[in-house]
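Bug #77: duplicate submission created two jobs. Keeping one. Sequence:
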Amino acid sequence: MIRMTAVRNRNGTTMRSYLDFEKPVAELEARADELRALAGKGEDHALADEIARLDARASQALRELYGALTPWQKTLVARHPQRPHFSDYCAALIDEFTPLAGDRAFGEDEAIVGGFGRFRGEPVCIIGHEKGDSTETRIRHNFGMPKPEGYRKAARLMELADRFGLPVLSLIDTAGAYPGIEAEERGQAEAIARSTEACLSLRTPSVALVIGEGGSGGAIAIAAASRVMMLEHAIYSVISPEGAASILWRDTGRAQDAATGMKITAQDLLRFGVIDRIVSEPVGGAHRDPRTMIARAGDAVASALADAAGGSGDEIVNRRAEKFLAIGRGL
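Kept job's structure:
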């Protein structure tokens, strides 16, 4: 569970939210905000130096904290509700976006959003998990946990993209596929497998970017791409740390131990060859500066698409297969 401290200004308006381990930064920034409010009212013109000093201390504390995050702290950052979501990246990076709905078999699942548009002038198919950013939207998007119809929709969109020779961009941010009874009744495992197969069978370049959580088959179903990237503080794992702790020790309180042991960070996964690139985040995480984060992600995607292009459809498929078959070799 993420516990956050909200810092408010003198009018009671929420300004920032902090994770528990960011408490030293929260205290410094709260004090600076209080002094800034006083200075703005003209109560004391000698506060500028103290405000600058506090801001510098807060920035330094933030750099030190984020320069040495533990795997569990990275998990909390990856889950931060104020991180930019699929809808934010799509709105900023994709022009003329046209969403498509439904799996042509059961219904629509808004946990996965997808459609077609233009990325830097070129037509693409874009698919991603959407968690939502308010109570209403989180419920509508099922907190980013897809049901079978979501994966069948993703497979349908990928097949359309393949038919028209369009590259596919996937943005991953899910705790995992929805584990409810109705999802199992409608063939959750089969839908995940078919979506994964659709990824691997694409005869066009594909790029996957983990922007938050990459949870289990719920993530890999749209992440088996020609190039797989992660944001600096994202996580990618076969099960959540809490789930692993529950299975291994029958104690979810040992989630921190599980996070460390499972090697779920971008840095570990790059070393193991599971991903191809890490996209750096602004100091303090993507939620501190979404605009900069989205711009960096766009540059990384453009570079990865160019790198994955070239060759016939068969060659693209074979290169992708070799990439995944090579994972774990030589370790």
